[in-house]
Amino acid sequence: MSLLPIIEVPDALLRTTSAPVERVDEELKALVGNMFETMYEAPGIGLAAVQVAVPRRVVVIDLQDPDPVGEGEEPGPPVKRPHVFINPEILQRSDGRKIYNEGCLSIPDQYAEVERPDIVRARWLDVEGRSHEAEFDGLMSVCLQHEVDHLDGVLFIDHLSRLKRDMIVRKVMKAKRERGQAAVL
Predict the structure, then answer these.
(1) Most distant CA atoms of the chain, gap in Å
(2) Is 147 one of the catalytic residues?
(3) What is the mean pLDDT of the chain?
(4) 104 annotated among ligand-binding-site residues
(5) Which range of residues forms the domain containing residue 96?
(6) What is the 8-class DSSP label of residue 20?
(7) Among positive and negative, which fits the CA dihedral 34, 39, 41, 45?
(8) Cα–Cα dist 62/47, whole Å
(9) Is the pLDDT of residue 17 over 50?
(10) Phi, psi (5° rounding) for residue 181?
(11) Is residue 130 in a domain?
(12) Which of 27, 102, 147, 178 is catalytic?
């Protein structure tokens, strides 16, 4: 497995609609493995393939539950609970809404409160090509919606006012310049 470069705003590829996966094969499984390695290293809890410059409908998520600790014990590393979503579709969204403070590996070091449906029902394929359908709530719901947005060319900042969105993009561009990377518009 290898680390993949994560593209950042304002890269135009982040605004494209990702193509459906036609077949689950060894190449796709390798991509999924590389995406997990990249996400864990970043570190993050979700990553869409388009964020590593592969515009295909693939998402990896791991909320990394804390390791349960016995009384008087030091906490261990988080327990990995990887989820793979190939061609994910959000079938239903609840009327109930929740606000979460979201961030994004393609918009480094920037966070904002985003309101989304609290519960979603989704359908997807796993890495063996099997179909699944389930309901998600809480952070998993938010993360899945965030990553599916990426597959449709939507960023979490698009859910903000134009003023807030522009301010965040300016901050990212300034940070890139300070790191010595020329930002291309």
Answers:
(1) 54
(2) yes
(3) 93
(4) yes
(5) 12-67+76-178
(6) P
(7) negative
(8) 9
(9) yes
(10) -100, 125
(11) yes
(12) 147
